[in-house]
């Protein structure tokens, strides 16, 4: 492939990686990870509310990794509230999981930025053969998505983007994060989660996760072999060299 086309492909991959880094940074600071509706179970049981009357006891909330807001309703009108995870909710949330979500999000941003720099360096600079060359781009992309590389000594231990989604989903679903937030400092009423859905920020992480797969395909499209794929020519050369000696 001509060098000009390779530059264009590497520039595209670099722009995609940089856009992903900006997207994850934005997602990290916004309270748009989860949107949930909560039912005031205590109030609904006291008045024996029917299905039509449950709307008066239905509240909602949205939150991210650092803060959130919502509205509680228990038949007496809406009560808006705001909260932050640090330091307000440290006693009720699984702190280790929550901190790991933030940590892996930060690592994901750093890896994506480094990958973008490598792509731009390969497009406009004179890359070295190992770290800065195609092997370095493959390595960064594979680490970012945590692909297991068979038949090589490189084995990614975990995907930052994938771990962020898995850990956050376990925190929300297994540890009932929305209920813990809704029942924080509520001594009289008990709230139960009715519905939860992932908001835009978690889908940004999901898209950025798959962009790294796209980057791997772009590297291959530029004409570089996968690091674990050995060409037949090299194998023939090795065999000939062995026969000579």
Automatic annotation (TrEMBL):
<dbReference type="GO" id="GO:0030140">
    <property type="term" value="C:trans-Golgi network transport vesicle"/>
</dbReference>
<dbReference type="Pfam" id="PF25807">
    <property type="entry name" value="Clarin-2"/>
</dbReference>
<keyword id="KW-1133">Transmembrane helix</keyword>
<feature type="transmembrane region" description="Helical">
    <location>
        <begin position="131"/>
        <end position="149"/>
    </location>
</feature>
<keyword id="KW-0812">Transmembrane</keyword>
<dbReference type="GO" id="GO:0045178">
    <property type="term" value="C:basal part of cell"/>
</dbReference>
<dbReference type="GO" id="GO:0048870">
    <property type="term" value="P:cell motility"/>
</dbReference>
<dbReference type="GO" id="GO:0050953">
    <property type="term" value="P:sensory perception of light stimulus"/>
</dbReference>
<feature type="transmembrane region" description="Helical">
    <location>
        <begin position="97"/>
        <end position="119"/>
    </location>
</feature>
<dbReference type="GO" id="GO:0030027">
    <property type="term" value="C:lamellipodium"/>
</dbReference>
<dbReference type="GO" id="GO:0007605">
    <property type="term" value="P:sensory perception of sound"/>
</dbReference>
<feature type="transmembrane region" description="Helical">
    <location>
        <begin position="198"/>
        <end position="222"/>
    </location>
</feature>
<dbReference type="GO" id="GO:0032420">
    <property type="term" value="C:stereocilium"/>
</dbReference>
<dbReference type="GO" id="GO:0045494">
    <property type="term" value="P:photoreceptor cell maintenance"/>
</dbReference>
<protein>
    <submittedName>
        <fullName>Clarin 1</fullName>
    </submittedName>
</protein>
<comment type="similarity">
    <text>Belongs to the clarin family.</text>
</comment>
<dbReference type="GO" id="GO:0005886">
    <property type="term" value="C:plasma membrane"/>
</dbReference>
<dbReference type="GO" id="GO:0050957">
    <property type="term" value="P:equilibrioception"/>
</dbReference>
<dbReference type="GO" id="GO:0005902">
    <property type="term" value="C:microvillus"/>
</dbReference>
<keyword id="KW-0472">Membrane</keyword>
<dbReference type="GO" id="GO:0007015">
    <property type="term" value="P:actin filament organization"/>
</dbReference>
<dbReference type="GO" id="GO:0010592">
    <property type="term" value="P:positive regulation of lamellipodium assembly"/>
</dbReference>
<dbReference type="GO" id="GO:0060088">
    <property type="term" value="P:auditory receptor cell stereocilium organization"/>
</dbReference>
<dbReference type="GO" id="GO:0015630">
    <property type="term" value="C:microtubule cytoskeleton"/>
</dbReference>
<dbReference type="InterPro" id="IPR026748">
    <property type="entry name" value="Clarin"/>
</dbReference>
């Amino acid at each position: 492939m001509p060098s000009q086309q390779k530059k264009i492909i590497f520039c595209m991959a670099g722009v995609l990686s940089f856009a992903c880094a900006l997207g994850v940074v934005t997602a990290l600071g916004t309270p748009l990870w989860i949107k949930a509706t909560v039912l005031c179970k205590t109030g609904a049981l006291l008045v024996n509310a029917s299905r039509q009357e449950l709307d008066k006891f239905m509240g909602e909330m949205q939150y991210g990794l650092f803060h959130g807001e919502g509205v509680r309703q228990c038949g007496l009108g809406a009560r808006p509230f705001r909260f932050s995870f640090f330091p307000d909710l440290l006693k009720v949330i699984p702190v280790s999981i929550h901190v790991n979500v933030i940590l892996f999000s930060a690592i994901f941003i750093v890896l994506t930025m480094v990958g973008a720099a490598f792509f731009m360096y390969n497009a406009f600079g004179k890359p070295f053969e190992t770290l800065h060359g195609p092997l370095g781009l493959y390595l960064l992309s594979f680490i970012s998505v945590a692909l297991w590389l068979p038949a090589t000594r490189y084995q990614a231990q975990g995907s930052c983007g994938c771990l962020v989604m898995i850990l956050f989903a376990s925190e929300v679903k297994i540890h009932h994060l929305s209920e813990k937030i809704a029942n924080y400092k509520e001594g009289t009423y008990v709230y139960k989660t009715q519905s939860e859905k992932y908001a835009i920020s978690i889908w940004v992480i999901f898209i950025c996760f798959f962009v790294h797969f796209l980057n791997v395909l772009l590297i291959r499209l530029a004409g570089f072999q996968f690091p674990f794929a050995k060409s037949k020519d090299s194998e023939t050369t090795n065999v000939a060299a062995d026969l000579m000696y």
